[in-house]
Amino acid sequence: MLVTDKALKDVIFFSMDQTLRGLRAYSTKVFLESGFDITVDQWLVLKRVSEGNGTVSQTEIAEMLDKDAASMTRILDILVKKDLLFRKMSSQDRRRFDLVMTQKGIEYVTALTPIVLKLREQALAEISDKEIQLVRSILEKVTHNLSQE
Amino acid sequence: MLVTDKALKDVIFFSMDQTLRGLRAYSTKVFLESGFDITVDQWLVLKRVSEGNGTVSQTEIAEMLDKDAASMTRILDILVKKDLLFRKMSSQDRRRFDLVMTQKGIEYVTALTPIVLKLREQALAEISDKEIQLVRSILEKVTHNLSQE
DNA sequence: ATTTAAAATTTGATATATCAAATATTGTCT
DNA sequence: AGACAATATTTGATATATCAAATTTTAAAT
């Protein structure tokens, strides 16, 4: 039974995208209001760098975040320009850079981490772990469905 | 009880984003392999135009798709350049353009509509309507949670 | 009828994603 | 050692998103 055309609002992927865009916009706004001029993507990168301070390369961060190497170069350029981290050439492998936090970068991570946790809590209020698990299993099914031939 | 830091893969919003990006990339690939050089965003716009052929403005399409007017201008520029639609000045309101399909645009929509339905079916295989409803209700909760103060 | 406010579209600036091509450096193979 | 493949990063082109400012036209208010 071929489903006929649906209104966009009934397409679950459209709703997902809308919700995510809303969360992204809201988070950026909260960051800004808290005094931190940083986007969500920049935050994700900064946080991963801070977790492996001085030991992770651009490629490694890109893999963790499922991002393109080219995007990573550009996001890092911005974080460097904002004086939140810097590139240090690896002594073992001169192709790669180890990413190192600046003092300001560390302050950002220290201050933003609890803010991000609170944001997440707010977004997931009244939603049980069981429900989240269900959503996760559905996402996994979708990914699996697309990888099949 | 303040949740401590989580690995990214355990953050449900990250997983959602990953799944959506995968679906988007897969769809674009299928479009291309089917002989249609069009992105998912361009498709969404073209489809909405076709549904109100000659009677909808840029702002109206932008609202339906929850997009910025500036983005809409640029996506339409591309669709015009690809000869899939054109802008016709409205006789009632000279500020606005009515969007009109070209023959080629109509052919694209005719051919792509069943492809998109099949993609959606594939992505949602083995997922029940009940599960989709649950995901939808959770997305609504999230959106609601963010709009509260 | 003027002034003023609102609406539709565009444009410029900045951020991000993806793909392909280019560079520099390592690793591997024989 | 020398050739060739693989890896890390960068750069250019194109697509999209968001914000702010500008333009044109219409609507509203006095």
Task: Let me know the number of strands of chain A.
Answer: 2
What is the CA-CA span between the terminal residues of chain A? 22 Å
> Which spans of chain A have pLDDT < 50 for at least 5 consecutive residues?
none
What is the spatial order of strands in the main beta sheet of chain A?
Answer: 1-2
Largest sheet of chain A: 2 strands, antiparallel
Overall residue-averaged pLDDT value of chain A: 94
The share of residues in helices of chain A is 55-70%
* Helix-strand string of chain A: HHHHEEHH
Main interface: chain pair and counts = A-B, 45 and 46 residues
Structural class of chain A: mainly alpha
- Radius of gyration computed on alpha carbons of chain A: 19 Å
Seen as an oligomer or otherwise, the chain set is homodimer
DSSP helical segment count of chain A: 6
Portion in strands of chain A = 5-15%
**Overall shape of chain A:** globular
Describe the structure.
The structure is a homodimer of 149-residue chains. With 149 residues, chain A is mostly helical. The first copy, chain A, has six helices and two strands. Chain A has helices at residues 12-33, 40-51, 58-65, 69-81, 103-123, 129-147, and strands spanning 85-89, 97-101. Chain A has a two-stranded antiparallel sheet with strand order 1-2. In chain A, a hairpin with a 7-residue loop joins strand 1 and strand 2 (97-101). In chain A, helix 1 (12-33) crosses helix 5, helix 2 crosses helix 4 and helix 2 packs across helix 5 (103-123). The radius of gyration of chain A is 19 Å and the shape is globular. The interface between A and B is large, with 45 and 46 residues. Chain A binds a DNA duplex (30 and 30 nucleotides) through residues 21, 25, 39, 41-42, 57-59, 67-75, 78, 93-97.
